[in-house]
Amino acid sequence: MRFPVVLLSLALFWTLQAGWSLPALAQQDIPGPERIDRRLAAGGYDIFVEGEASNLSLGTALFSIAVLNAATGQPIPDARVVIRTAHQRSSETGWATALSIPERPEIYRARMKLDSPGVWQVNVDIDGPLGRVETEVGTVAIPEPRQYLSGTLVFAGAAVALLAGWAYMVWIIRRAQQRRRLTDAG
């Protein structure tokens, strides 16, 4: 039973010798993405745009757009809303149709996959009863993929320790079975 304890102690010692403290691994300070929160007037529309890079899925941006009649303040539930994106440093572009949500038909939502990290320019194109408008709404920053070398090494060390513990237990059991056979035979 001492063999797994020794392995775990060695893994912890190796982790600390490498200069990693376990709380420091969990609290890396990585800046978050830029966020779009804008109110725009374009044509006869009041447009409210919220957009941000997803914290759950790398390269995904989430957009919510509210479209209202600028003169009356009434929602416009039957517009066609298209989000267009362009990467600022390359020629990559993308688009997505935002769909209205049943609970609030004046709000349109879209999820876009933006493949390259960096800053993406976002435009909204609205085609509705008050005409067609396209307006620039801002930028969304997609962060660089994070490298988790330290986490990978800790995981690999823990996996090796578990496998070694399992192998040790199998060896102990087989040795006990062999002794039992010898004493039963003799």
Give a description of the structure:
The protein contains three helices and eight strands; from the N terminus they run ααββββββββα. The protein has 186 residues and is of the alpha+beta class. The chain has two domains: 2-27 and 147-185; 35-142, Sandwich (Immunoglobulin-like). The chain is elongated and about 100 Å long.
Please tell me how large the radius of gyration is.
Answer: 29 Å
Average pLDDT: 78
> Unreliable runs, pLDDT <50, ≥5 residues?
12-16, 18-33
Q: Please, what is the CATH homologous superfamily of the largest domain?
A: Periplasmic metal-binding protein Tp34-type
CATH topology heading of the largest domain:
Immunoglobulin-like
The coarse silhouette is elongated
The helical percent reads 25-40%
Roughly what fraction of the amino acids lie in strands?
35-45%
Work out the number of β strands. Answer: 8
